[in-house]
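Researcher: Here's the sequence for the chain we discussed earlier.
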Amino acid sequence: MRLLRNMTLLAIAFGVLLSWRTAQAEPPTIKAGAFAMDVTPLKFPISMNGNMQDHPALRAHDPLHARCLVLDDGKTRIAMVVVDNCLIPRDLMDNAKQQAQKLTGIPTDRILISATHSHSCPSVTGAFQVEADADYVIFLAERIAVGIKKAADNVATAKIAWGVGRDETQVFNRRWWLKEANAESNPFGLIDKVRMNPGYSNPKVTKSAGPVDPEVSFLSLQSPTGRPLAFWTNYSLHYVGGTGSGELSADYFGAYAERISQLLQANKTPNGLAQPAFVGAMTNGTSGDVNNANFSLTMPPKFAPYEKMKAVADSVATAAMAAHAKAEHRATASIAMRETEIELKVRKPSADDIAKAKERLEKAGSFPYKTMADIYARETLKVAEYPDTVKLKLQAIRIGELGIVAIPCEVFTEIGLEIKRRSPLKPTFTISLANGYNGYLPTPEQHELAGYETWRARSSYLEAGASPKIVEALLKLLDEVK
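Model: Thanks. This is the structure I predict for it:
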């Protein structure tokens, strides 16, 4: 009897172990829900970030959105949000996450919110001579949270795929080597070895001072029957604006979302518009030193207002579609997400820097200031009010074999390329301007070259050695989620 009982217990144990191993071996079924929440302001005029002076918008050329995606593998539920805005501070994003957690139950450390970096959107943080619109700050946080809730309400069984395309025609490193290092345009009177956006046919420069990343990474969600649900994309292009006067716009990021929807024929069904509606999104990659201007040309090509951003969107969307055509959607994928904080030093101005800035502004005349030296003198006083250190929120996500990391900065391309090269997950891409805004993130070597992106201001204040510390922290997170 004892032998029989022991054999029975062994059989039960073996069965439990086999079931457990089978459960571990079979990836969980994926579920997804998406929603594009309109975040166009209700009141005009409204201040816009993206320039050295405030140029208030009087109307919206096209709607602004917080594009929300919720993914669920049965154990882990996460949300990713892409907001049409230039710069979003951490406190606004944290507020939106807290509201979303109350509405959905998704923990705040399982929510990633990023800004597109459109230069034609309402200001929600101070930068140069533009300050936040207090009413819109409250409005935007609430709308983001509700958008996540609506995406969560749409969660249903889905199929998933990811991949990488290439578009080498739309990205150019905007920092160029000067033939002779000088202080000609440096607002602090210091020596620059490179110049941002030097202009076409500039005889004072030689070649670009950094690389580009032409990869177009994507995450695609479909219904079980193959209807497109969402298409999240990542490309390392700073932005392409519409150049409309006094108008809000989602810029190239909004144009891309519209174009990818058209190419996928996403919202067309035999019975009319698809429900829930398809959501396309473009996240900003590592584009801190990359834009769409090819300064090796003699003259720039000419476009009518809003036409260039549509042309760029079409080019990138076409590249994404070519890669998408080779991808195989599957019904299963597991999800893992980790979050950490890293504390970094602030490049604070010295007492002498502060005294000189005050002296300059006393002679500068009335605000707003016109010269770069005066504008940066004001920025010197703003950065002087910062703490000696700041905490940055970093995130890593694994979806199947895909890796995603998030950095709250305008990240230089070579940093993103290093993360891709060293990541244990293939492919991996970086979402910039995520979970806060901590200015430009050049490498220590690029700091040595100086130039606009390194000039101390609210747009560039982290310690020169920040990027290696961020990269190592992210690689540790990637190891945890792999």
